[in-house]
Amino acid sequence: MSEKLRLRFSKKGRAIYSSHLDLMRTMQRVFTRAGCALKYSEGFNPHPVISILLPLNLGCASECELMDFQLIGDADPAALPALLTSAMPEDVTALEVYPAVQKVKDLKWLRISGVFEYDTADPAAMRDGLQAFFAQEHIVITKKTKRGEDESDIAPAIREIGFTAGERCVRVSAVISAQEPTMNPKHLVAALSQKAPELVPDFEEFTRLEVYDARMKVFR
């Protein structure tokens, strides 16, 4: 039996509008086109043994997506990134493949960058307002859940956050909780919409930059 491998890949450009399910189907076709036979589960409904560790939110870009998989037979991890990239759609790129050693439960923090665009507001004033807002000890917002709506304090899920004024925009840099609790970057904008509408950007975009464990060591 082949060992479990982990793929780190990027997803940018037009690919950010592909859903998680679309990406999973795409990845299965990528392995087929690349001539790499995925291992299948056993039982009455066999399926490829692949899983994306932290499904990406629709509309977000990433430089650090992680996917676990197993192949039938042996493979050279060093040769797989180029082979898989040649079969991937535009704006999805395989960056590295290596044995999956760290457990998914140990993945704790995400480093993200973002851009808040403002059509008319002064970026410097927005920067100051954003910094003050997210410096609060508690930021309780209403979130949609499977059972309806619930209140959640997102402040503990923000390890660090900073803002820099640009031309008609404010650039965001933050480290947020990846799981337990799961923090969606768009919760930052939801908090503004609910608590400080004067700071809501006219357009926002986010990119995942890196993933870490609880000690802030890069997770691989």
Structural overview:
By secondary structure, the protein is an alpha+beta fold. Helix content is about 20%, strand content about 35%. It contains four helices and ten strands; from the N terminus they run βαββαββαββββαβ. The strands form two sheets. Strands 1, 2, 3, 4, 5, 8, 9 and 10 form an eight-stranded mixed beta sheet that branches. Strand 2 (about 50) and strand 3 form a beta hairpin. The longest helix has 14 residues, at about 20-35.
List keywords for this structure.
220 residues, alpha+beta, 8-stranded mixed sheet, two-stranded antiparallel ribbon, 4 helices
Summarize the structure.
With 220 residues, the protein is of the alpha+beta class. The protein contains four helices and ten strands. Strands 1, 2, 3, 4, 5, 8, 9 and 10 form an eight-stranded mixed β-sheet that branches. A two-stranded antiparallel ribbon has the order 6-7.
Number of strands: 10
Contiguous uncertain segments of 5+ residues: none
Share of β-strand residues: 35-45%
Helix content: 10-25%
Helix/strand order? EHEEHEEHEEEEHE
As a whole number of angstroms, the C-alpha radius of gyration is 19 Å
- Which structural category do the helix and sheet elements fall into? alpha+beta
Largest sheet, in brief, is: 8 strands, mixed
- The residue-averaged pLDDT reads 94
Write the SSE topology.
Layout: E1 5-11, H1 20-33, E2 50-52, E3 61-69, H2 80-85, E4 92-99, E5 107-117, H3 123-134, E6 140-145, E7 148-153, E8 158-165, E9 169-177, H4 186-195, E10 203-213
Parallel strand pairs: 3-10
Antiparallel strand pairs: 1-3, 1-4, 2-3, 5-9, 5-10, 6-7, 8-9
